[in-house]
Every structure is written in structure tokens, then in C-alpha cells.
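Why run this: before we spend reagent on co-expression, it is cheaper to look at a predicted model of the complex and decide which construct boundaries make sense. The entries below are exactly what would go into the expression plan.
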Amino acid sequence: MYQWLQTTGEGAITILAWVGRYAIFCGRALRDLMRPPYEGGELARQMYEIGWRSVPLIASSGFAIGVVLSMHTRASLERFGAEAMIPAGLAIALIRETGPLTAGLLMSGRVGAGIGAELGAMQVTEQIDALEASAVDSFKFLAVTRILACVLSLPLLTVVMDFAGMLGGFLAEHAITNMSFALYFTRAFSLVEFQDFIPATLKTAVFGFIIGSVASFLGFETRGGTEGVGQASTRSVVLASLFLIAGNVVLVRLIFFLFPVAPS
Amino acid sequence: MRPNGSAIRLEHVSKAFGALPVLRDVSFEVKPGQAFCILGRSGTGKSVTLKHIMGLLQPDAGRIFVENEEITRLTGAALGRVRQRMGFLFQNAALFDSITVGENVAFPMRRHTRLSDEEIHGRATRKLADVGLERDFEKMPADLSGGMRKRAGLARAMALDPSILLVDEPSAGLDPITSSEIDDLLLTRKRQGTTLVVVTHNIPSARTLADELMLLHEGRIAAQGTVAELEGSSHDLVRAFMRSESGG
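The model came back. C-alpha cells follow.
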């Protein structure tokens, strides 16, 4: 019993210490976002790496999700003779939830792993110390730029995913019913409102902060050579995805609270 | 009290990682233009001492002065200004592996000078030429051998012509010829007036470079003095260390 209590207590303290260090890391990142120098060159490089180079993955995934969602929506709505609602149903599903969440999870896989491994490798090979020795604020140069690039990229990538999904949905529908592009999109946007698009898209900026901060934090905390780098990469994906899904629950609740007229 | 006339001064510095004490009440002074070698077996706190001097680690107790500025009190931009007066050659060179060798050397100049791209390229090429790597500007660090990486690291450490150069294990993992070449490069810097603090296991290298030696043992200073003084020491550990070729 005593052994169990001791093990549980030590585990709880380790987790609380981790949460505390992560909270301090996030607080420092938010503070340093506002302070010069702004490391514009490195931010642009990270926007390219994190944002632009994710476009093929996001667009192709969005397209495939659109096709699949269209097929499922048709299978459901056909039973009620409501095939005309397929474009609108797909648009609302994509824009309000599927697009933002899927974009977030895809990015936590691609970018979370990348940042965790890159910063982890820099940590164990003393490159982060070398940056500091070169009189460069390594936190600002490496962590803040990556977090900000994630925050700025995620909403844009979500728009790409939404559009690619709609396109996939249209092609799936066109293949079956020969529906025109204009009619499909007129019907698709007939029920979509401002409250559907803006909050759901902007919440992905929070997803971006979660992905960037978790991966950067784990990269900076890496110890123990190549094994540590591998662990940092894996944990970045797992924890960023978990935090993102948990954060999504809170954000959806918040959106419904702030926009009560939004149709559910 | 502000100490005068020293490039580096440590006063009663102690450091522990968790329950493990690494430095215990370490005090020493390095004069400007002097070459100071820190010797000791693995895990005795040599590299930790260097990282304290660069401000990469904070001591648990004690004070550290670099050119009369107490760096233990400095943070942010103020610490950055002191760091610009120092160069650091890491044990494994720690070159930034996402940019070329030339860009590694140019990096400190891009960050801390207002030179044009052309001037920076020219200066970085000259720094690489000083270490015999002028043809390797466009290579990636992964394409260099261990010795070449170390020389490139030295070129980067010298990029801003610092008055103090901190060198961690310059001969570790290198063959005797390459090791001797690195020693020659360090001697050249010393003759040009750069203060050197060199951590090494290599006794022949220390004999070549050092004006003064310090032997660390279990985080404490076991001995300090010139090569002749340490060779004449009655301390068994010091005599054993100075007699060895590799130093342990």
C-alpha cells in the first residue's frame, strides 16, 4: 500500500512539474511574441516550411475527405429523399468541424513530429547552446518563430482543406448526378453563415499554438541522444493531438456560447 | 569589489545537477592574452566550467566576471553583448546542420554586424581560409570529417574576432596530426592576443598551449600552476596526470 502511494505520488508530482514547466514555456512564448526583435527572416522560413509545404498534404487529404463525406451524406439523405441537401450538409460539416479538426490533426502529425525532432536534435548536438553562444536568443529564434508560424498557417491551411473538401464533394456528386459546378456551390453555401465559417476557422490558430508550443517544448526538453530525439518526436505528435482534441471540446463550447444563434 | 586586470575570474563557484555536485567552490583567474588549460578526468566539471563562463549555465553559488563584468547578474541583451566578445568551440563543433559551412561562419556576422552580404561572404571566406577550409564554403556540415568540422567550428567561434576564446576538447576524437593542426591554430590566436581557455584531456596539447594549467578533480581544484609547477607537484593525482600521454 505504502509502495503504491509513493509511486502514485511521485507520478503525480512528475506530471504537475511537467505541466508547470509547459505553462511557463507557453507564457514566455506569448510574452516574447510581442517583444522585438521579431526574427522576420526565420519566421518567413518557418511559414514556408510549416505552411506552404503542408499544402499538398492538406489539399489531397481534404479532397479525399470531401469525396468520402459526400458518399456517406448521399447514403444517409437518400433515405429521406433529401439529396438536394447534400452540398449544404457537406459544406456545413466540413467548415464547422471536419475541416478544422482534420487539418489540425494532420498538422500535429507532420509539423509536430518535425519540430520535435529538429529541436531535439539541435538540443542533443549542442546547436541550441551554440546559438546562445553566438549571442542569439535561442528561445525566440527557434520556438517563438515556429509557434507563430503554426498559429498563422493553420487557419490558412484550414481554408485550403475546406475548399479541397468541397471540390472533392462536388466531383463525387457530379460523377453520380452530373450536377453543375454553379448549382453545387450555390446549394452548398445556401445554409453556410458567417458564424459557421469565421469562429471554426479562427479556432485553428489555437490548434496552431498547441502544436507549435508542445513540439517546441518537447524539443527543448530533449535529453539522451538519438533515443531522446525519437521520443521527443513521438511525444510531440501524441501530446499535440491529445491537447488539440481536448482543446477542441472547450473551443466548440466557447463558440456556441459566443455565437448562440448559430444553428447547431 | 570589482576585480581589475583579468579577462575571466570565477569566485567560489558551485554547481550541482540535482543531488550531484559538479563544481565545488571553484575560484580562478585568467589574465588577458593568457592561455589557460583546464585538465581533469571525464565528469569532473571541465565543460560545465566553460559553459558557466559563457553564461550558458548559472552557478548555484559564486560569481563570474568576464572582462570585469559580472555575467551572473546579466540576462538578455546585456548578456548577449558580453557573449559577442567571446567565441566558443564546442566539443563536437555544434555546427548548424541546416546551413552550409560558410553560412555557419557568416551567421554571427549577419546577426551582429551591419556589413553587406558581399563583405560578410568575403570575411567568412577569409575565416575559413585561416583554418584551411576556404574550398568548403558551400559544403554542408554533414559532409565534413571530424577534424574539418572542428576547424569550421573554430572559424565560426572566431567570426567576430573575440577577445576570449573558450575551447572544449579541441583534440577529442582526432588523429595526432589533425590535433596538432588545431593546436597550431589556437597558438596563432594566442600570439594575436586572444585569451584562451581550453578544456582538454590531452597533456601534450596542454604543454604546447598553456601558460597556466588547472586540474579539476571531483569538482574541486586539485592543482593550479605552470606546466613546470604541476610536473613538480607532490600530489599523486597531479603527477599521474602530467605523466600520462592522454591524461586519462
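The longest strand of chain B covers residues 20-30. Residues 96-161 of chain B form one domain. Bring this page to Monday's planning discussion.
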